[in-house]
Predict the structure.
Amino acid sequence: DAKTTQPPSMDCAEGRAANLPCNHSTISGNEYVYWYRQIHSQGPQYIIHGLKNNETNEMASLIITEDRKSSTLILPHATLRDTAVYYCIGSPQGGSEKLVFGKGTKLTVNP
Amino acid sequence: DTAVSQTPKYLVTQMGNDKSIKCEQNLGHDTMYWYKQDSKKFLKIMFSYNNKELIINETVPNRFSPKSPDKAHLNLHINSLELGDSAVYFCASSQAWSRRNNEQFFGPGTRLTVL
């Protein structure tokens, strides 16, 4: 599993875009980049994933560099409810692979 | 219409006891997992079942025994509970491994406290 590196914490103002970086320089060609988040006392929640193209869904956008060594999760208009720990995970293609969670980034959205 | 449910939500018990945590998913998924989140908030995989067959078994003491009576259920039985077993246990499910997406759906967690 690819080892990922994320800043331990970040702050963002409510209504502004939150840009969460992730370094995954050892990611292999068949590993997708997944983003999950865990709101306090809840189970982790899937956000988005991608292989090499940028991806967007109703929750966020994922920008992956061309060399695939890093990515950025973008929450376009952060709300207080987006305060959570965000995990960047490298995972092989497939639906039964374990997720290896790191320490993640604690994002605090401030009013 | 809960997707992944766990019971109980809280479990407080004495050392040496045997306890079970139940998990059910109504998403029609083929694969289910158990994760453990310790006091330092590290979330680690314990087991994974695909179509009732064990496919992932991390280094977990033999006191932990998962049981999958059918695809929709994966229960976790723990024998001779120890203080170090205190943690939050999360159940999750996903589609079969042959698909491209490894989106896992997590339950709300069971907070186990061993006294």
Q: What stands out?
A: Residues 71 and 81 of chain A are 23 Å apart (CA to CA).
